[in-house]
UniProtKB/TrEMBL annotation:
InterPro entries: CheY-like_superfamily, Sig_transdc_resp-reg_receiver, TCS_response_regulator
Species in which this protein is naturally found: Flavobacterium endophyticum
Domain (Response regulatory) ranges: 8-129
PROSITE patterns: RESPONSE_REGULATORY
BP GO annotations: phosphorelay signal transduction system
Organism classification: Bacteria, Pseudomonadati, Bacteroidota, Flavobacteriia, Flavobacteriales
Gene3D superfamilies, A to Z: 3.40.50.2300
Superkingdom as given in the UniProt entry: Bacteria
Xref: SMART domains: REC
Pfam families referenced in this protein's UniProt entry, alphabetically: Response_reg
The protein's name: Response regulator receiver domain-containing protein
């Protein structure tokens, strides 16, 4: 079985069905990948501020939430010394130019358009864990920022 640099994944999305599908896709790709789902930015921030946890390899972060937005969550993560270098993928249906610009300017590593079906979801997750080495660079590249299948 292939070993991935990304082993510990966090999804932040209030949609329970999205979380179930994401979990199923991750398990089908590799049962050794770990996934934690959170349904609000406040919940994931509480988790990330716990000093006893293993930090995630990547966070898939939806933009739209009723209280703290995904962009505000991204800003908060980037403002913490212990969290600022986490790999963050904005994961949303809303791929407007303004959302992409906000995410890029606040140092998201990649903007992932949610796929329309389960096979697309698996393809996206597998591609992201396969190309994780690209996120280690401090250079943010706008030309490769939007990722979709």
């Amino acid at each position: 079985m292939k070993e991935y640099a990304i082993t510990n994944i966090v999804l932040v999305d209030e949609d329970l069905e999205e979380c179930r599908n994401f979990r199923k896709a991750v398990e089908e790709i590799d049962r050794n990948l770990k996934l934690l789902c959170f349904h609000s930015c406040e919940d994931v921030m509480e988790h990330l501020n716990d000093t006893d946890i293993q930090l995630p390899s990547i966070i898939f972060l939806e933009i739209h939430f009723p209280t703290m937005s995904g962009i505000d969550c991204l800003k908060e993560i980037r403002s913490h010394n212990t969290l600022k270098d986490l790999t963050i993928a904005i994961y949303s249906n809303s791929t407007t130019e303004s959302n992409q610009e906000l995410a890029f300017n606040n140092r998201a590593n990649i903007f992932v358009k949610k796929p329309k079906d389960f096979d697309g979801l698996k393809k996206i997750i597998k591609s992201i864990v396969d190309i994780s080495f690209q996120f280690d660079s401090a250079d943010f590249n706008k030309d490769t920022f939007l990722f979709s299948v």
